[in-house]
Amino acid sequence: MRATLDFLQERYAQFNALMFGGELPQVRLRLSRARTYLGQLRYRRSRPLFGRTKYTNLTISISTLYDLPETEVEDTLIHEMIHLQILLGGKRDSSTHGPLFRAKMREINEQFGRHITVSHHATEQERQQDQRKRNHLMCVCSLTSGKQGIILARPSNISGLWQRLPQLPDVTDCRWYLSTDTYLNRYPRPLTLKIYSIPSDILTRIIAEARPLVRQNGQIFPAKCKIGGD
């Protein structure tokens, strides 16, 4: 299923009463199309000169990009509600999913038969569901091992990657392309230098349909058209 606002509001009220003693405040619930997370808690923090830190604009976002079992959508919502309880409780955990979070997670899992986890890793089936057409700035790197890998750039960091990738000791050749192949949707656009493996037959198909990128006078262009971003 893909969550709806009505579903999230109903479950939030239910879980708040059942698992959190009704102590959580009403927060904004919103739907997103995020690829990098299933759920996220966001807020604004203000620190007055005297008094306790205040948190406003409390928002829990749930991604509807993937079609997931209803129980997994519920567990994602509960996961973010645990973060909310810790945030408003005035206690500081040692990390994002530290002892406080894990203790509450285990308590809920054991008492209510849930399967909440620290993080979610998308399955191959979930990744295949993302079929949106997007512009991908892709570098195909030939490696000293004889293999090839790719890295996707953001419009904001393609110039830096263009210069830095050929300097890596394991990279022997770099070729840049603009592609809208939906297979590439499963790969992140890292801010660091990280090359990802890709099946050779799929890479051959993507390159055949892609447009080469060239760099002239400090500008990067695909097939005579200037790159405009996502």
> Tally of extended strands?
9
Biggest sheet layout: 6 strands, antiparallel
Total DSSP helices:
6
Helix and strand sequence: HEEEHHHEEHEEHEE
Main structural class: alpha+beta
Oligomer: single chain
CATH-defined topology of the largest domain: Zincin-like
Poorly predicted ranges: 226-230
Helix content, binned percent: 25-40%
Query: What percent of residues are in strands?
Result: 25-35%
- Any idea how many domains? 2
User: If strands are numbered along the chain, what order do they take across the biggest sheet?
Assistant: 7-5-4-6-8-9
* Average pLDDT number: 87
Distance from N terminus to C terminus (CA atoms, Å) equals 28 Å
Gross morphology is: elongated
Cα radius of gyration in angstroms: 22 Å
CATH arch. level architecture of the largest domain: 2-Layer Sandwich
